[in-house]
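re the bet — no i am not wrong, look at it urself. input seq straight from the record:
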Amino acid sequence: MADPNGFKQYERRLSVRRPAGVRINDFREIYLPFAQEELRKQAARCMDCGVPTCISGCPLGNLIPEWNDAVYANHWLQAFQRLEATNNFAEFTGRLCPAPCEEACVLSINEPAVTIEQIEKEIIENAFARGWVRPVLPLRRTGKTVAVIGSGPSGLACAQQLNRAGHRVTVFERADRIGGLLRYGIPDFKMEKHILDRRLKILEQEGIRFQTNAWLGRNLGGRDLKDFDAAVLCIGATVPRDLPLPGRHLEGVCFAMDFLTRQNRINAGDDPEAMGIAPISARGKDVIVIGGGDTGSDCVGTCHRQKARSVTSFEAADKPPEGRPENQPWPYYPARLRTSSSHEEGGSRYWNILTRAFAGENGVLKELITVDVRTTRQPGGPLQIEELPGTERRWPADLALIAIGFTGPETDSIAAELVLETDPHGTIATNDRYMTSRPGIFCAGDANRGQSLIVWAISEGREAARQVDIYLTGQTGLPEKGCCDLPLP
């Protein structure tokens, strides 16, 4: 236990964000450096519980009390080794994960939780700064080859684990750059792309091969995979949920991910118009973001930086409570009100509003038509939405961004190309070993479980790699969830 009285002596503190009026003028990360001495105090708040529910709350099974204790003792190398033992990419999760571990923290029963995510980020950044994050080469090569389709967090984690097991791994990515959602879906103000490139360089040094502009079902077919002993589909859940409403065809009604991807390309130095990508800009416009999840929040922050005239967010659901709902007791992850850094930067948020139609002139969006709703749910039943008579409203809008989630992976061409079964939810059907209906072809991440968290994607990539290793060799030395990884230098 780091400090028996730490949770009594120190209050929870997080890294200070750059002032909103300053940070909306650029796309750089929003947080200021966090002092190591303050971080030690935060680590001292960890109580090293008899049953550390933070570990079970983490999809990766991170050994959180162990690296908290090491940070408090100034044993930074040990802290890094314990963190790296279960998490391939702590620099991603330390920035992007919603931290279910903190909601499961025992201290959070009646006090603010330990700042687990902040400590995680500082451990890995300290390790990079000290040169401890180095390529881990396999002790031997098995002679087996594996194709990983998709280079998001699931694909990269799967590839690294398989490479450490000694297999030759090639990662195929349909875009022109490696990274998947990390590259083109996450705004730079949440994670600058040099963080991703830094890790990709290490993966290449470990022996992983990357091939871009390789789209399974188009220019990459099943015959191309026959040269590999196994393949893992980590293609994400990229089919956006649409709003088939009157006026959906109007110019100015767009999917959120198209909007975010375009800005990330601009930040990377691309000219989207020269690439044939339609222009989408919030500058000087009244913008309405339909959907209040992470993607909607990312749109809000991007609109602020593009200098929108106004930014308004709609959600059909009830406004969540600020505290933990009674029907979601500790240590479950609660549906409580979450205010992101993007929401802090400005704009308006509305709940219990349902979009009914888009209206415009000469093919261009001018307004959104909405109605207020009441939501109810019977025990064990689906959410019921009741429209309230006489509540129709019209909202000025030059740009409407649809950010209401994703329905699943793009399986039409892939499932046909590889002759794979899908499940009733639209994801690729797998057994308990992550194998699809076709022997030797596996699936992990959002394509397997549906739209989920980055930490779940990494976890699934690691677990799928274990099963591929067993399939290829009859055994595996790769760790199970929450167990130590291969020795680090």
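see?? Residues 485-489 have pLDDT under 50 and may be disordered. told u. also DSSP finds 19 helices and 16 strands in the chain. so pay up
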